[in-house]
Protein backbone atom coordinates (compact mmCIF):
# COMPACT_ATOMS: atom_id res chain seq x y z
CA UNK A 1 0.00 0.00 0.00
CA UNK A 2 1.07 3.58 -0.60
CA UNK A 3 -0.22 6.71 1.15
CA UNK A 4 -2.61 8.69 -1.05
CA UNK A 5 -4.49 11.28 1.00
CA UNK A 6 -5.51 12.46 4.44
CA UNK A 7 -9.15 13.40 5.16
CA UNK A 8 -10.55 15.94 7.61
CA UNK A 9 -13.93 17.53 8.23
CA UNK A 10 -15.12 21.10 7.64
CA UNK A 11 -18.29 22.83 8.70
CA UNK A 12 -20.44 23.31 5.56
CA UNK A 13 -20.86 27.03 6.32
CA UNK A 14 -17.13 27.61 5.76
CA UNK A 15 -16.33 24.76 3.36
CA UNK A 16 -15.89 26.98 0.30
CA UNK A 17 -14.01 29.62 2.31
CA UNK A 18 -11.42 27.08 3.46
CA UNK A 19 -11.10 25.72 -0.08
CA UNK A 20 -10.61 29.27 -1.40
CA UNK A 21 -7.96 29.91 1.26
CA UNK A 22 -6.00 26.81 0.28
CA UNK A 23 -6.27 27.57 -3.44
CA UNK A 24 -5.61 31.32 -3.42
CA UNK A 25 -3.24 31.62 -0.47
CA UNK A 26 -1.28 28.34 -0.61
CA UNK A 27 -1.51 27.38 -4.28
CA UNK A 28 -3.48 24.16 -3.90
CA UNK A 29 -5.24 22.74 -6.95
CA UNK A 30 -8.60 21.02 -6.93
CA UNK A 31 -8.27 17.41 -8.09
CA UNK A 32 -11.80 16.12 -7.65
CA UNK A 33 -15.06 17.36 -6.17
CA UNK A 34 -18.31 15.70 -5.16
CA UNK A 35 -21.34 17.19 -3.47
CA UNK A 36 -19.92 16.31 -0.05
CA UNK A 37 -16.10 16.27 -0.48
CA UNK A 38 -13.14 17.79 -2.27
CA UNK A 39 -9.59 16.55 -2.92
CA UNK A 40 -6.75 19.07 -3.22
CA UNK A 41 -3.02 18.94 -3.87
CA UNK A 42 -0.31 21.51 -3.44
CA UNK A 43 2.15 21.50 -6.37
CA UNK A 44 5.27 19.55 -5.45
CA UNK A 45 3.46 17.49 -2.79
CA UNK A 46 2.77 13.80 -3.14
CA UNK A 47 -0.02 13.47 -0.57
CA UNK A 48 -3.47 14.96 -1.13
CA UNK A 49 -5.92 16.55 1.28
CA UNK A 50 -9.55 15.55 1.29
CA UNK A 51 -12.13 17.65 3.10
CA UNK A 52 -15.67 16.50 3.75
CA UNK A 53 -18.62 18.59 4.82
CA UNK A 54 -19.65 17.72 8.37
CA UNK A 55 -22.85 18.83 10.10
CA UNK A 56 -21.53 17.89 13.54
CA UNK A 57 -22.16 20.55 16.16
CA UNK A 58 -19.71 18.97 18.59
CA UNK A 59 -16.11 19.92 17.88
CA UNK A 60 -13.22 17.64 18.76
CA UNK A 61 -11.99 18.89 22.15
CA UNK A 62 -8.49 17.57 21.45
CA UNK A 63 -8.19 18.75 17.84
CA UNK A 64 -4.90 20.57 18.54
CA UNK A 65 -3.32 17.10 18.30
CA UNK A 66 -4.65 16.60 14.77
CA UNK A 67 -3.00 18.84 12.22
CA UNK A 68 -2.63 19.54 8.55
CA UNK A 69 1.03 20.54 8.76
CA UNK A 70 3.17 22.82 6.61
CA UNK A 71 6.82 23.88 6.67
CA UNK A 72 7.78 27.54 6.73
CA UNK A 73 10.86 29.61 7.54
CA UNK A 74 8.45 32.04 9.24
CA UNK A 75 5.65 29.82 10.59
CA UNK A 76 3.98 32.29 12.95
CA UNK A 77 3.90 35.01 10.31
CA UNK A 78 2.63 32.64 7.62
CA UNK A 79 -0.25 31.48 9.81
CA UNK A 80 -1.04 35.03 10.89
CA UNK A 81 -1.37 36.00 7.22
CA UNK A 82 -3.89 33.15 6.79
CA UNK A 83 -5.75 34.25 9.94
CA UNK A 84 -5.94 37.80 8.59
CA UNK A 85 -7.20 36.53 5.23
CA UNK A 86 -9.80 34.35 6.96
CA UNK A 87 -11.03 37.27 9.08
CA UNK A 88 -11.45 39.39 5.95
CA UNK A 89 -13.69 36.59 4.60
CA UNK A 90 -15.81 36.53 7.78
CA UNK A 91 -14.22 33.37 9.20
CA UNK A 92 -12.78 33.85 12.70
CA UNK A 93 -9.31 32.37 13.11
CA UNK A 94 -6.50 32.64 15.63
CA UNK A 95 -2.86 31.60 15.87
CA UNK A 96 -1.44 29.71 18.84
CA UNK A 97 1.92 28.10 19.62
CA UNK A 98 3.09 24.62 20.48
CA UNK A 99 6.65 25.93 20.91
CA UNK A 100 8.86 28.71 19.58
CA UNK A 101 9.20 26.79 16.27
CA UNK A 102 5.71 25.24 15.89
CA UNK A 103 2.47 27.18 15.58
CA UNK A 104 -1.13 26.45 14.71
CA UNK A 105 -4.10 28.18 13.15
CA UNK A 106 -7.56 27.33 14.41
CA UNK A 107 -10.77 28.45 12.76
CA UNK A 108 -13.09 26.93 15.38
CA UNK A 109 -16.33 27.44 13.46
CA UNK A 110 -14.86 25.83 10.33
CA UNK A 111 -12.34 23.16 11.39
CA UNK A 112 -14.18 20.23 13.01
CA UNK A 113 -11.36 17.85 13.86
CA UNK A 114 -8.02 19.52 13.07
CA UNK A 115 -5.94 22.68 13.05
CA UNK A 116 -3.44 23.96 10.48
CA UNK A 117 0.11 23.73 11.75
CA UNK A 118 3.21 25.49 10.45
CA UNK A 119 6.65 24.60 11.71
CA UNK A 120 10.27 25.41 10.96
CA UNK A 121 11.80 23.12 8.28
CA UNK A 122 14.49 21.75 10.59
CA UNK A 123 11.77 20.04 12.63
CA UNK A 124 11.04 17.82 9.61
CA UNK A 125 14.68 16.93 8.98
CA UNK A 126 14.18 13.26 9.79
CA UNK A 127 16.91 10.68 9.45
CA UNK A 128 15.06 8.11 7.36
CA UNK A 129 16.97 4.91 6.61
CA UNK A 130 16.71 3.54 3.07
Structural write-up:
The chain is of the alpha/beta class and 130 residues long. It has one domain: Roll (2,3-Dihydroxybiphenyl 1,2-Dioxygenase, domain 1), CATH 3.10.180.10. It is 20% helix and 32% strand. It is built from two helices and eight strands, in the order E-H-E-E-E-E-H-E-E-E. The chain is globular, with a radius of gyration of 15 Å. The two termini are 17 Å apart. The relative contact order is 0.22.
Would you summarize the structure shown here?
The protein is α/β, with parallel strands linked by helices.
Give the SSE layout.
Elements: E1 5-10, H1 15-26, E2 29-33, E3 37-41, E4 48-53, E5 67-71, H2 75-88, E6 94-97, E7 102-106, E8 115-119
Parallel strand pairs: 1-4, 5-8
Antiparallel strand pairs: 2-3, 3-4, 6-7, 7-8
Protein name: VOC family protein
InterPro entries: Glyas_Bleomycin-R_OHBP_Dase
Organism: Dankookia rubra
Features:
single chain, 130 residues, alpha/beta, 2,3-Dihydroxybiphenyl 1,2-Dioxygenase, domain 1, 32% strand, VOC family protein, Glyas_Bleomycin-R_OHBP_Dase
Radius of gyration, whole Å? 15 Å
For the record, the CATH class is: Alpha Beta
Secondary structure tally, helices: 2
The CATH homologous superfamily is called 2,3-Dihydroxybiphenyl 1,2-Dioxygenase, domain 1
Task: Compute the separation of the termini in Å.
Answer: 17 Å
Number of domains in the coordinates? 1
Got a strand count?
8
CATH topology name: 2,3-Dihydroxybiphenyl 1,2-Dioxygenase, domain 1
Sheet with most strands:
4 strands, mixed
Summing up helix and strand content along with how strands pair, one would put the structural category as alpha/beta
Ranges where pLDDT stays below 50 over 5 or more residues in a row are: none
Mean pLDDT across the residues is 94
Helicity range of the residues?
A: 10-25%
Strand content: 25-35%
Shape category: globular
Q: At CATH's second level, what is the architecture?
A: Roll
Strand order, biggest sheet?
1-4-3-2
InterPro entries: Glyas_Bleomycin-R_OHBP_Dase
Protein name: VOC family protein
Amino acid sequence: MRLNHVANRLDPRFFETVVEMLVTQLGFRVLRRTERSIWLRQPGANVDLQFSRSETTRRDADKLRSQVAFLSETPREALQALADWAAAQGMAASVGAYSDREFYLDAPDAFVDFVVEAMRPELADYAVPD
